[in-house]
Amino acid sequence: MAEQDRHPAINAVLKFFAYQHLPPHLQAVSKDFHDLACVVADRAPLNAETTIALRKLLEAKDAAVRAVLP
To answer: The pTM is what?
Structure first.
């Protein structure tokens, strides 16, 4: 689904899944979370639980990226 077709609340969370600015070793960890977040955003119903699911996935992504930092 295109960004302009998503609810603004969903886009507000999805922007934090961007990974292209990261160094390659962090991109490798972050990309899968980005891809899953897009699947959730595109397939789940538009309601508060979807936003919560994305926020929790964001927490998991942040932890995974921190886990591979020196």
So the answer is: 0.90
